[in-house]
């Protein structure tokens, strides 16, 4: 929200007041409170008839400093609030030298000169990261009587801003006005399904605004060189989170707001959907599943979209008896005959025609208006109402309906909607409607995730969620919502996913082929490549099916080959998933996250890193031409073995059997033995693909066991010393292989027994079970 009219004036009807100086300080153990008048006070009379801001400063965790500015403190505290995870053992240090006051939390410090004009400096390692200056702390009132608390933090020259949730507008947020407000706006507008009041910059820090309601951002827009954020409230609280690297920032931010759960291994396989408004029954489902098997395309999950229930009755959690007369038998057959998991669509709304409407109304489980009426409208479902998840009894009632489905054999839920939440309502627990608008999705997804954790066990719960807010990363997976079916929508989807990853979300997916409309064969095949090189992969549409044979035979081959490639990459991908659960590092990573010291990577949004070591540049053209950037070093194309020298831009043309998929210089990529499914013993028969090993460097490769939260199971250390490459293994359950990509080699003479074979990609050395040491001598390149 903009308050000023240019640099000098305020907008009509707006009066703003800003902290001008420090009147006094109160220090209490590991925090301090500043009292700040909004004018420079030179005589006693100026203390009358003028506001005094209270500014509290403290640290909840190492490398994190909180600031809360308060105008009037008498407002009642009404929820909801984000659940924050502080460090009980952490204690900030406060020092005072004359007028200089300093709060230090590990490497990050907040410095205030109490004798100077108002200024909060956030510093680390001897440099100022950002500051709240003359207009940095304050409030504004409008002629309509609204009161806004606001803050401004400086941006340095060439400082770029990222994040704020899954946003489909330009990846770099400088110059944008952004409202953190849930909306069902598709992927082609400024609205977003997943709004997160957290941003980070390429200067080594992030900022989390701890307010679940509407947070309005002006990023290098209203005031150039400033990030301004405001809330319609009497107070504003934010946390500055230090890195210094982007990964460190996400580590500290997700430690504060919640780590992503680790999804089950099977969820990384290919999901196939009925699509939305298409016609389908059990025979259609069987035709799809048989068709995939006949074409040798491994399938992991089958998803039933909305019309598994009767029209006008969403949600009644009951299979349409005319279409699916034997749901338990159908689910049993899908599992026994095809080894599939099953997902079904749900939303948090109850249509008036649903028998559950009267039941929920009778018990008071539906959100009400101030006069006691149930809130209803006809948008989406006729006469629909909302389940009031602030009522513990309503949550248990809703959960009981889901438990009945898990008992039938349902393995996971697509938790759709949760964005269009009204503000003219009364919540069971007295929550503020403005604050609950964004937060509703957190209660919704949490309720469903808890049911799945209870029914399937820890580590087996997974959602396919559309809406989210800060902390929602704890309940993966999230997908990008309703996009069109063309190359532009494919690119905007990727922008949204990369922004979400920089907002603390570890796992993300999208509708392969696009949702609205029907993709051309060219779009479908390129989207399949992108989708199967994403965290999670689902074929889904609106009015048309997404089975690959509906497009052409080449689409079948592309789907088969890239599904099988993803399965072979599972030992690599699941380790990346563990990193998301351990530190909040997303599986799909914006280039700036991996290469913060390369300025060329700071604005890239049409390519990404998949885990630590794979660069993916999806093709966004029917002609197959792609422009992409390669960072410094010798990179290796994963599919062809071709070596590419960076740094620099490349323009290349690819057929549908390939795309830019490059292994990082010196990387060791583990390839699983099986391509039949996502979940198998990844360490047994694994092949370590060694790419341009660096002399004198040891690379550690951990191969987890499916479902393991730790990094045990198997461990390899690969070292190059001159023309000798050695690999030491620990905990490997069977035979294993090493592929020296692009190199000629022979087994070394240090006692290891291995057979050597020249392949199109390089030299393959195979060792038997029980071998813990391999040496190879490079003989050429």
UniProtKB/TrEMBL annotation:
Superkingdom of the source species: Bacteria
Residue ranges annotated for the Glycoside hydrolase family 31 N-terminal domain, each copy included: 57-217
Molecular function GO labels: alpha-D-xyloside xylohydrolase
Class of the enzyme per the UniProt entry, highest EC level: hydrolase
Protein name per its UniProtKB record: Alpha-xylosidase
Keyword Magnesium attached: no
E.C. no: 3.2.1.177
Family of the protein in this entry: Belongs to the glycosyl hydrolase 31 family.
NCBIfam families: PRK10658.1
UniProt domain Glycosyl hydrolase family 31 C-terminal: residue ranges: 584-669
Annotated Glycoside hydrolase family 31 TIM barrel domain residues: 260-575
Organism name: Streptomyces violaceus (Streptomyces venezuelae)
Keywords, in A-Z order: Glycosidase, Hydrolase
């Amino acid at each position: 929200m903009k308050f000023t009219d240019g640099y000098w004036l305020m907008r009509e009807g707006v009066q703003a007041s800003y902290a001008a100086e420090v009147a006094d300080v109160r220090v209490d153990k590991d925090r301090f409170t500043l009292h700040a008048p909004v004018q420079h006070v030179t005589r006693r009379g100026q203390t009358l008839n003028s506001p005094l801001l209270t500014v509290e400063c403290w640290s909840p965790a190492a490398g994190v400093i909180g600031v809360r500015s308060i105008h009037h403190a008498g407002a009642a505290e009404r929820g909801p609030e984000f659940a924050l995870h502080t460090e009980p053992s952490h204690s900030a240090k406060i020092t005072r030298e004359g007028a200089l006051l300093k709060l230090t939390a590990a490497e990050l410090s907040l410095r205030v000169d109490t004798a100077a004009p108002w200024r909060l400096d956030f510093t680390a390692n001897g440099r100022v990261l950002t500051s709240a200056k003359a207009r940095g702390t304050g409030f504004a009132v409008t002629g309509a009587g609204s009161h806004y608390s606001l803050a401004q933090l400086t941006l340095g020259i060439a400082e770029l801003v990222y994040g704020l949730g899954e946003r489909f507008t330009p990846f770099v947020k400088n110059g944008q006005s952004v409202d953190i407000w849930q909306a069902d706006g598709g992927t082609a507008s400024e609205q977003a399904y997943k709004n997160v009041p957290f941003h980070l910059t390429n200067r080594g820090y992030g900022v989390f605004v701890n307010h679940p309601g509407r947070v309005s951002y002006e990023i290098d827009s209203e005031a150039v060189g400033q990030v301004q954020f405001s809330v319609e409230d009497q107070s504003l609280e934010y946390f500055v989170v230090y890195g210094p690297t982007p990964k460190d920032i996400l580590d500290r931010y997700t430690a504060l707001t919640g780590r992503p759960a680790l999804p089950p291994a099977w969820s990384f396989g290919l999901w196939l959907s009925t699509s939305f408004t298409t016609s389908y029954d059990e025979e259609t489902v069987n035709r799809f599943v048989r068709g995939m098997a006949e074409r040798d395309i491994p399938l992991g999950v089958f998803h039933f979209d909305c019309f598994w229930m009767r029209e006008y009755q969403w949600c009644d959690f009951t299979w349409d008896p005319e279409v699916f007369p034997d749901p338990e038998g159908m689910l049993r057959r899908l599992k026994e005959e095809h080894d599939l998991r099953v997902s079904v669509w749900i939303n948090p709304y109850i249509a008036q025609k649903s028998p559950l409407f009267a039941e929920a109304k009778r018990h008071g489980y539906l959100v009400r208006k101030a006069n006691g009426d149930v809130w209803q409208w006809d948008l989406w479902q006729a006469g629909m109402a909302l389940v009031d998840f602030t009522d513990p009894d309503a949550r248990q009632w809703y959960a009981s309906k889901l438990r009945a489905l898990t008992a039938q054999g349902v393995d996971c839920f697509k938790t759709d909607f949760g964005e269009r939440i009204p503000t003219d309502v009364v919540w069971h627990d007295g929550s503020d409607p403005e604050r609950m608008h964004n937060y509703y999705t957190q209660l919704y997804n949490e309720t469903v995730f808890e049911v799945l954790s209870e029914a399937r066990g820890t580590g087996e719960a997974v959602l396919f969620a559309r809406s989210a807010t800060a902390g929602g990363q704890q309940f993966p997976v999230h997908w990008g919502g309703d996009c069109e079916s063309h190359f532009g929508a494919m690119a905007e989807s990727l922008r949204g996913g990369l922004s979400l990853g920089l907002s603390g979300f570890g796992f993300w997916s999208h509708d392969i082929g696009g949702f609205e409309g029907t993709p051309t064969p060219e779009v479908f095949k390129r989207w399949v490549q992108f989708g199967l090189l994403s965290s999670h992969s689902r074929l889904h549409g609106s009015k048309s099916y997404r089975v690959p044979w509906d497009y052409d035979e080449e689409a079948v081959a592309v789907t088969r080959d890239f599904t099988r490639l993803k399965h072979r990459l599972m030992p690599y991908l699941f380790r990346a998933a563990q990193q998301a659960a351990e530190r909040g590092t997303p599986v799909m990573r914006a280039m700036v996250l991996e290469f913060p010291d390369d300025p060329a990577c700071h604005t890239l949004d049409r390519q990404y890193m998949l885990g630590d070591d794979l660069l993916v540049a999806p093709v966004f053209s029917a002609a197959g031409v792609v422009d992409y950037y390669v960072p410094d070093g010798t990179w290796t194309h994963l599919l062809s073995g071709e070596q590419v020298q960076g740094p620099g831009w490349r323009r290349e043309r690819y057929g549908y059997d390939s795309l830019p998929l490059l292994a990082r210089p010196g990387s060791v990529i583990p390839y699983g033995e099986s391509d039949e499914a996502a979940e198998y013993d990844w360490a047994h028969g694994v092949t370590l693909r060694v790419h341009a090993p660096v002399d004198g460097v040891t690379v550690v490769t951990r191969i987890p066991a499916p479902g393991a939260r730790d990094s045990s199971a198997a461990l390899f250390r690969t070292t190059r010393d001159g023309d000798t490459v050695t690999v030491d293994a620990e905990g490997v359950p069977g035979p294993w292989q090493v592929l020296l990509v692009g190199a000629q080699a022979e087994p070394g003479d240090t006692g290891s027994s291995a057979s050597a074979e020249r392949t199109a990609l390089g030299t393959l050395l195979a060792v038997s079970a029980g071998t813990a040491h391999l040496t190879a001598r490079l003989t050429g390149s």
